[in-house]
Structure formats: structure tokens, C-alpha cells
Amino acid sequence: MHSLALLTALPLAGFLVNGLLGARLPKWLVASIACALPALAFVVSVTLFAQLSRDGTPISQTLFTWAAMPDFNVDAAFYFDEITAVMCLIVTGIGTLIHIYSIGYMAHDAGFARYFAYLNLFLFFMLMLVLGKNLVVVFVGWEGVGLASYLLIGFWFTDPAKTAAGLKAFVVNRVGDTGFVLAAFLLFGLVGSFDFQVINAYFSGAVVAPGLATAIGLLLLLGVCGKSAQIPLHVWLPDAMAGPTPVSALIHAATMVTAGVYLIARMQGFFVHAPVAMNVIAWIGAATALLGATVAVTQFNLKKVLAYSTISQLGLMILACGVGAFSVGLFHLLTHAFFKACLFLGAGAVLHALNGEEDMRNMGALARRLPFTFATFLVGTLALCGIPPFSGFFSKDEILFNAWTAANGSVWLWAVASAASALTAFYMFRAIFMTFFGNDNVAQPQKSHIHEPPLSMSSVLAVLAVGSLIAGFIGLPVAWRDFLGFTAPFYDFVAPAMSAAEPVHGSHRTEILLMVVATLLALAGILIAWLYYGRERAPGAVRRKPGFAHALVDRGYFFDDFYDRVVVRGAAWVSDSILVPLFETPLAKATLTRSAEATRYVSTLFARLQTGNVQAYAFYALAGLAIALWWGAAHV
Q1: Residue 271: which of 198, 205, 216, 333 has the closest Cα?
Q2: What Å distances lie between residue 174 and 151, 171, 181, 227, 532, CA to CA?
Q3: C-alpha to C-alpha distance for 358 and 443, rounded to whole angstroms
Q4: The 3-state secondary structure of 203-220, one letter per residue
Q5: Closest CA to 264 of 212, 218, 233
Q6: Which of 384, 385, 432, 568 is most deeply packed, by most CB within 10 A?
Q7: What are the tens digits of pLDDT across the range 416-445?
Q8: Rounded CA gap, 286 and 606, in Å?
Q9: What pLDDT sits at residue 538?
């Protein structure tokens, strides 16, 4: 079997074995299969990465011809280049760590085998998405991760609220997927192919009507907004916290939400020729970054703080792609995978110690009871806040620099993104002070059970914390590279796959100045969090006079309220008041009711012939024979 096919086959095999036989297998065997196969997929990814680094030639494999007609041909084909390599290493590497962590976290869950089967299925579809050579194969993975997220978010399906959260994620993503499909059809009608390389090459040499390019770009952006939780389709991601915490880490760090960023980077050759769409992408990203950061400030659920943080960080990645810094957006995706997985799994360790408690107001003073968990959570937080030398500093500040200096960048884009970054430092240290310091607000029955996570969980936290610390050094900013005389292995590696021109960098002085400003803003956010929460002994006491502004932010700017009252209830009213009486009822009466009545009438008519009289039956037979002979004679 070719290595690209093997890469996807390994997690698929884990899904099939545990999905079909897991209920009858011991837990240790279920866990071994579920973790070993993604680990082998990671080994295959590393092998392919090494081959690509050595040869410099992308690897392609056609499995079979999916559809072949005149002027239409679609292959089930995989493609492994530098962008794919980065994504595969993240998906299999971080994904394997989350699988290992889950052994301890889900040890006592009745759905142990089903859980690991779903995790393997998630990796299979995500690998298909990033390996797809054309839009059709990518769309299969695109829909597959939507299915897997529905299964995992609603994993505890006996709870109606959790089932509703999974359904919400599924439905909202279908809205975005509509944009993806329409854009794919427009691209095929224009280019005559679904293949990414053909599409990018076409736009590099052809002149396309600006309106058409903008329409395709905005439709693709709609798909991106669904998968990567951007305004206005971001509402599903906070509710995705209904699933087990490792699922949140998998969705937020390694799989589903990164798909939109990947799609833009993959189709960069098209997007640079759709400048209006690029500007919209940049501002959607900036607005989402600020929205996620402001809403996170008001949350008391630890997992939802991290969920809104993910929305904000995804906004920064989309912003980077919108200003043409595709490699920078991809690099922040990489560093974010480490520190966001570390934070979610650290939150999982806290929940594990507190028997599922998620409200930070019921925590406090846990640093001395959970020192290891606190240390890893702190490392992830410093990376997320962009404090040097942690990984987030290098990727986030490169985004801010490009927002300022890129051709379609502006001081306003930089200001919005910087405000989001400063708020990130505030709400994350607010979470740290409320969770790990201050008064001990843990309920008495839970105090006796507080404990550090088992080895399967703690070892993963240690690896992710180290990654959160050092991952940034493979992507040093230009000013640092020139001053130190180093290279940037990440940017050097992905450069061959970046067919679109990356933005021209400004002066080193500007870059360093913006880094200093960003660091000072982050430190200011930490200081304000300490002033309000580090010294404050009553959790949430900062909210003394809640008003409309607080309600606006706390309720996510009423997006959910709008969708519920206008879209959901509006659709229900249109259905009940217009569609049902004017269309459904008459149509049902014309097709179902009347056909049933006609059938009943005919059956009644024929029933009258069943009299039980033999002479009558003989008469019917002779009459029928006479009619048949007459008809035959008349048509000879």
C-alpha cells in the first residue's frame, strides 16, 4: 500500500476495529489499538516529511477514478506537499497525544470503546481533508469532520443539552458547507477542474472578472466561517464544550477548526487574485478576534473561556491569510496547536480533579494542590498571551506586524488585532487567578478527591508544555533572523508551496517596535487581571453594576438570540403559517389523500365481484373471453 493511502488507512482501521468489536474487547486492548494506529500514522507523516525535505518534490497518489465522463473527470487522489506535511504532522502528532491523554480521562466511562472509535474516525476524515488533491476529496473530509464532531460533541447523548450542542454544530456547519459547494461549482465552470494545482495555476495566468472572483472568494469564506468559527457562523464552537474535554482539545487544536485556515492557504493562488474577498477575509478575522476576546472576559466556565479564546486566535490566523501572510497564518496554526491543546487538557486535569466542576467561581487556591497541572497551564497561558520567548510570541507578533505592513493592511487592522491580544492576556490570567489562586471555593465533597492526573495525562501535558515553550523558535521573525544570523526552518520549508507572493516586510525597526508594543500590551493585560482578580477575594466581584454593555458581551453580542428568534422561529412561522396551508396541505391532499381514496374506491368495486357465486364467476370469464375475441377481431 502506498504511504499516502496508509496514512489515512491506519486511523480508519482503528475506527473499524473498535467500532465493531470494541464492546467485546478489554479496555487496555481498545486503548492500545486506538493510540497505536494514530502513532503509526505520525511515524508515516514524519517519514513523508523527511522524504519531501530531502527530494523537494511533492508526492501524489491516485487511488482510483471516481467519475469519468466527457469533459468531466474526478480522481480520488492524495497530494503531499509542504502545506500538507505541516497539517499531517499536527493532526497525527497532537491527535496521538490527545488519544493517550484520553486513556486516563475516559477510563471509567461506559462508552470507552465508542469514544476511541469516534476519535480515530475524526483523524481519518481530517487526514483525508488535508491530503485531498482536489476539492471533491477535500469535501468528503470536510463533511466527515462535521459528522465526527457531531458524534463527539454529543457523545453523552442521554443528556438532551449535549445532544442539542452536537446538532447545533452540525447544522451551522451545513450553512457554511453550502458556500463551499457553490464556490466549487463556480470554479469548475470557470477552470474546468477541481484540482487545486490546476485552479491556482489558472488564476496565475488568466484574467478573471473581478465580480466573479469576489463571489467565489466570499462563498469560500462562508465555508471557512463555518469550519473555523468566524463571524457570523462562530456560534457553534462555545457549545462544542458539551463533549468530553479531550474532544474539545482535538477540535480546537488539531482538527476541525483548522480546516478553514488550511483551505485559504491551499487556495492562495486564487485568493491573491480576489482582492475584495481578501479584504473581507482580513476584516472578518480581525472582528472575530476581538469578538472572541471580549466575550471570553465575561465567562466563568473555564472551558468556555478557552473556547472563545480559540475563536479569537482563529480570527488572527484568518487575518494573516487575509493580508496575504499565508505562511504566518499557518505558523500560528502550528504554535496554537501546542498551547491550546496544553490549555484544554490542563483544564481537563482540573475538571478531572474536581469531578467535572467547570465554574471558576467554585475553584480557587488549586496551585498548591495541583502544582504540575498549574505549571503546564501557566506555560500554555504565557504562550497564548504572546509573552517572549514562548511560542505564541513569535507567531502572534508576526501576524500583528503583517497587519501593519502588508499591502492591504492598515493601522486599524493592527489596532483591532492588538486590542484582542491585550484582552487575551487579561482574560487568561483572570482564569488563572480565579482557578489557581485566591480563596479556596471548592465544594467540601470535592476537596478530598483533588489529585494530580495519572501518568497517561500528565506525560501528555508535559510534552505539550515543552512544545508551547520551544515551537516558536522554528519561525523566528525577520528582524531576529537577520540580527542573530539564524534561519527560519518553518518559513524556509513551506516556501516552495507558497505560490502566491508573501507580503514585503517593513523595516526591522518597525518590526521590533511593534513587538515591544505588543509585549507591553500583554503585560498590561496581566497587570490589570492581577489588580482585579489576583487581589480580589470574591470571585466575580468585578461585576458590580452589570448593564447593557455587559449583557451584550456576556451573551455573545446576541448572535444566538438573533438566530433563535429570527432564523429558527421565523422559519417555523413561515412553515406553519404559509408553506403548510398553501402548499403542503393541498399537495398532500392532491397526491396522498386522493390517491388513497381512488385506491379504496377501486378495491371496493372489485370486492363486489367476489360474491362466492360460481355461476357469476363463469359468466365473468365468458364475458371477458367474448370481449377479448371481439377486440382481437376488430384489430386484425
Answers
A1: 216
A2: 15, 5, 10, 9, 41
A3: 12
A4: HHHCCCCHHHHHHHHHHH
A5: 218
A6: 384
A7: 999 999 999 999 999 999 999 988 888 888
A8: 74
A9: 45
DSSP string covering 31-99: HHHHHHHHHHHHHHHHHHHHHHHHH---EEEEEEEEEEETTEEEEEEEEE-HHHHHHHHHHHHHHHHHH
**pLDDT of amino acid 64:** 87
567 alpha-carbon distance from chain centroid: 23
- pTM of this structure: 0.89
Tell me the torsion sign for CA atoms 218, 224, 228, 234. Answer: positive
Q: Which residues contact 24 (CB under 8 A, 6 or more apart)?
A: none
Helices 508-529 & 371-385 angle (0-180, nearest 10):
140
According to DSSP, the residues that pair with 64 across neighbouring strands are 76
All 3 cell numbers of residue 483? 540580527
Give residue-wise pLDDT tens across range 468-478: 999 989 988 77
Give the up-direction half-sphere exposure of residue 241: CA atoms within 13 A in the CB hemisphere: 22
Phi, psi (rounded to 5 degrees) for 265: -65, -40
Task: Please answer whether residues 417 and 286 qualify as being in contact, where contact means their C-beta atoms are separated by less than 8 angstroms.
Answer: yes
Q: With the C-alpha atoms ordered 412, 517, 403, 377, is the resulting torsion angle positive or negative?
A: negative
Please provide residue 344's backbone torsions phi and psi, each rounded to the nearest 5 degrees: -65, -45
User: In whole numbers, what is the pLDDT of the chain averaged over residues?
Assistant: 88
Q: In terms of Cα–Cα distance, which of 387, 527, 399, 526 is closest to 469?
A: 387
Residue 354, Cβ density class (10 Å: 0-12 exposed, 13-18 middle, ≥19 buried): buried
Q: What is the DSSP letter of 332?
A: H
Q: What is the C-alpha to C-alpha distance for residues 608 and 611, in angstroms, rounded to an integer?
A: 7
